[in-house]
Every structure is written in structure tokens, then in C-alpha cells.
Design a protein that fits this description.
This protein is mainly α. It is built from nine helices and two strands. Helix 3 crosses helix 6 and helix 6 runs antiparallel to helix 7.
């Protein structure tokens, strides 16, 4: 009864802008696709990696100039705030944070960093026979290219762990904290006790950042050769 009363008193408010949601779900699809394509479909794996590179660049830049809830400055907190938030995790009260909570913020940062390592090393990797390599593989020695290939593989294992933790956290919030994070990332809306009155970046800014990210990914796919 108390939960029903709380739901009646809450309001549905816009939380996530569409660029954040689109990047999130495209990364879900492309990371899974890249994993599948890594063995027998290297060309697809390569192009998927370029797309991931563009998305990661977009999300990092959008984390600086995008909508308030997308900006790192609005949700990344120090150790004190993060530990204080962690002490509230056993409580069953639904989270009312308008955006990423301090713990989720570090999860976002970690995922982006590992993805950046993934696509960054992928540009330089060389296979064992030196027949296949990233578009920048000719800029490094064979030995360094092989070392970067090992880091590429290791970072994917780290990414798998982070994704598993992320999924478990989403399930925990749904079951224990009674907060549906998946629906919010699909629709862009979530229920709050009161409307947080969030604002969002204009469409022209999305287009500019997307164009820059796409240009960088395209240039990387060409090995930054423009002739």
C-alpha cells in the first residue's frame, strides 16, 4: 500500500537525452557483435570496432559539452561521496538521484576507459603471422603489435567483467531498490518524488559532436592517411 501511495505521489520526468540512450544501446549491440565477429569475420570485427571508436569519442565529448545529466562533472564524485552512497545500498528506498549515482558514475567511467583501450589497441594490433593488423599496425614493430594484441585481448576480459557487474547492478536496483534503470535508458524518463526540472542540449550540438566523432573514426580507419 505504501509503495502504491508513493507511486501515486511521484511524477514521470525526462532524465536521459536521446544521444546518451542511443550510444548506450549501440554499444551493447556492437560490443556483442564484435565479440561474435572476432574469430571468423575479421573485416566485420574491424568495422564494428571503428563504429565503437566513434561512439566512445562521442560519449566522452558529450560528457563535457552535452546535456547536464550526460556531463561527467554532474555525476562523477570523489571517494567520500562514493563511500557514503555505498552505505545506503542495503536500504530498500528507491533511488531518487536525477542521473548516475556516485557508484554508477565510476562504472560509466571504467567502461568508457576500457572501451577506449580496446579500440585504441585494436588500431595497432598485429596477428601472429603478421598478415592481418589494424590500420596503424605499420607504425609499430611486430613485437609491439603483438604486445598490444595481448592488451587488446586482456582488456576485453576486463570489459566482460565490468559488463557482468553492470548487469547485476541493474538487476539489484530493479529487485531490491525498486528502480527500473532499463526502462529509463529506453524511454529517457523515470519517476521521481518531484520533477527535477532538467534541461537538455540542443540538436545542433549533437550534430556537431557526432560529425567530429565520425570524422575521427573514419580517419582512424584509414590510418590517418589522407592521400
Amino acid at each position: 500500500m505504501a509503495a502504491a501511495d508513493a507511486a501515486e505521489r511521484s511524477v514521470s520526468a525526462r532524465l536521459w537525452d536521446w544521444p546518451v540512450r542511443l550510444v548506450h544501446w549501440l554499444l551493447v549491440v556492437l560490443v556483442a557483435f564484435s565479440w561474435w565477429a572476432s574469430e571468423d569475420h575479421l573485416n566485420w570485427h574491424r568495422w564494428s570496432g571503428y563504429a565503437i571508436l566513434g561512439l566512445v569519442v562521442f560519449r566522452i565529448v558529450w560528457g563535457v559539452v552535452g546535456s547536464p545529466t550526460a556531463r561527467f562533472a554532474s555525476f562523477v564524485r570523489g571517494p567520500g561521496a562514493t563511500l557514503a552512497y555505498m552505505r545506503t545500498l542495503p536500504n530498500r528506498d528507491p533511488t531518487d538521484t536525477p542521473g548516475h549515482n556516485p557508484l554508477g558514475a565510476w562504472s560509466v567511467v571504467a567502461l568508457l576507459l576500457v572501451l577506449a583501450v580496446q579500440v585504441g589497441t585494436g588500431l595497432f594490433v598485429v596477428d601472429v603471422d603478421a598478415f592481418e593488423g589494424g590500420p596503424l599496425s605499420d607504425r609499430v614493430s611486430y613485437e609491439l603489435g603483438r604486445q598490444l594484441a595481448d592488451i587488446h585481448e586482456l582488456s576485453f576480459r576486463v570489459l566482460q567483467v565490468l559488463v557482468a557487474v553492470h548487469v547485476l547492478a541493474v538487476a539489484y536496483y530493479l529487485i531490491w531498490k525498486r528502480t527500473n534503470l532499463v526502462t529509463a535508458m529506453l524511454t529517457g524518463r523515470r519517476r521521481f518524488a518531484t520533477d527535477p526540472g532538467l534541461t537538455f542540449a540542443p540538436a545542433w550540438r549533437v550534430l556537431v559532436v557526432a560529425a567530429l566523432a565520425a570524422a575521427l573514426a573514419w580517419a582512424a580507419s584509414k590510418g590517418f592517411r589522407f592521400y
